[in-house]
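Recall that a protein's primary structure is simply its ordered list of amino acids. Everything else, from secondary elements to tertiary packing, is in principle encoded there. The following example makes that idea concrete.
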Amino acid sequence: MEQFTNVGLIECKQPVGSFKTDSLGNRHGFHLKKVMVPDVSPEIARRHYPQSEIVQDKRAIMEDSSIDLIVISGAAKDDLDLVAEVLQTGKHVRLV
């Protein structure tokens, strides 16, 4: 039985296109479970990430025990507190 790594995506800015969800597809062992996009309606976020649950709060991703990896996309220097906060959850973190 194949094991999947559940991924949470925290966008730090509005997406101009979908994060490379093809590279996180189930065929590669990853499942993009939850996505948070700031200042975007859930309907618009669903268009970018139709396979994922759209959440309004980063805590919904960080406190989900089934998520192993959190990807932070578009982080700026002032988002370093977010990176530290995610690292304190004990989850793996990837900045893109």
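The chain has a mean pLDDT of 82. DSSP finds three helices and five strands in the chain.
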